[in-house]
Amino acid sequence: TLVSVAFFAAITGSDSSIVRAAIMSVCVLAGYIIERDSDVLNSLAAAALIILIFSPSDLFDAGFQLSFLATFGIVYLNDFFLKMFEGANKIVLTTIATSLSAQIFVTPVLANTFHQIPLISIVANIVIVPLSSAITILGFAMWFAGIIHTGLAKIFGASIWALVKVMGMAVDFFSSVPYASVSSRSLPIIFILLYYLFLFVLPHADIDGKVKKVPLKITAGLVLFA
Per-residue DSSP letters for 91-128? Predict the structure, then answer.
């Protein structure tokens, strides 16, 4: 599996998000080999450390920032949103919780780097995520099938082509929806610090207070997003 992870990272271009995922996978697999429990946040931190040792300038790369913030957001807030939306369809619930967790953490980078904040991405991901997952799985199946017979691989390849076309149509549709994204000015550093401080305390029920009988987190959230 370690060899497969390294091979996958090599053939997919080895950008920040791929290297992060590969290093995190290696940490989990290494823990399994030496019979030690792995921790996702520790694995994420190890991935960031290793990448920055070899390429410190990546810290200022938008791809690096988006990849690590999105992953951290999913790890940190996903359970919080799963409990909040408990009772919905499991597949839809998981997609919404994961998308929302990632979206919230990358919003300041999107605003400051691209001056755009997507509003429809959470809805779009309900369609896009299952399609991209199926494409990835079929891609591996096509690779293994190609070892056996090229004709068999072509069947998987045709399926992938069809799904990619459908996903492209879905992306075009969602991007054409009015107010799919809004323009944004660069955010001041003090706002960004307060924004992430709010996110860090959000899932902790024991960290809260009241302002005139209104929970402090709700008050802080309304002030920030206003």
Answer: HHHHHHHHHHHHHHHHHHHHHHHTSEEESSHHHHHHHH
